Amino acid sequence: EPEVTQTPSHQVTQMGQEVILRCVPISNHLYFYWYRQILGQKVEFLVSFYNNEISEKSEIFDDQFSVERPDGSNFTLKIRSTKLEDSAMYFCATRLRASTDTQYFGPGTRLTVL
Amino acid sequence: AQSVTQPDIHITVSEGASLELRCNYSYGATPYLFWYVQSPGQGLQLLLKYFSGDTLVQGIKGFEAEFKRSQSSFNLRKPSVHWSDAAEYFCAVYSSASKIIFGSGTRLSIRP
Lengths: 114, 112
What we know:
The complex is a heterodimer.
Chain A lengths: L4 E3 L2 E4 L5 E6 L6 E7 L5 E8 L2 E5 L7 E4 L6 E5 L8 E8 L8 E2 L3 E5 L1
Parallel strand pairs in A: 2-11
Antiparallel strand pairs in A: 1-3, 3-8, 4-5, 4-9, 5-6, 7-8, 9-10, 9-11
Chain B lengths: L2 E3 L4 E5 L4 E3 L2 E3 L6 E6 L6 E6 L5 E3 L5 E5 L4 E6 L8 E8 L5 E3 L3 E6 L1
């Protein structure tokens, strides 16, 4: 079973600091996503990424957020200046190609902003 | 807009009993539907998916789900639950842009 991996598993940061969350997609997958889940709430879509550009983003994904795939393997989510309300579990997901292909989720990074 | 509703926030069933978790969706065209499971502190694992064809879908861990277009439902079932099935279960639908929209989840507890 192919796996999406994410690092770190848990990140604690001070409010106003920058954080970078990393994801290693499944090899050959072309579509990449970030979702987040605030404690006790539903999983929410943040952004989708294909062919080195953002395909779609939610209203949550404001100017403080950015994504990139700097080296053709890692897929990163950067939060420029973290806020308390950014505390959440962040999930990376990847998909091979067709819209009918499964999105595989990573184990998540728990971000705690103090 | 597409949406998913899971009316049950928390369900408790006895080990060995049958289970049905409810899910209703709102979607204009034929939906792509999913059930994911999340164990405490873990990521999201795909249990099963429906894209087309047979409306009764078999998944992993003995789960199945039935797509009923007339009722806009995609309920998850298992004939006999095990203590290890205790987890949070999310119903979800692909939106037109291929992002996944999740329901709010149903927490399943198992009574020994």
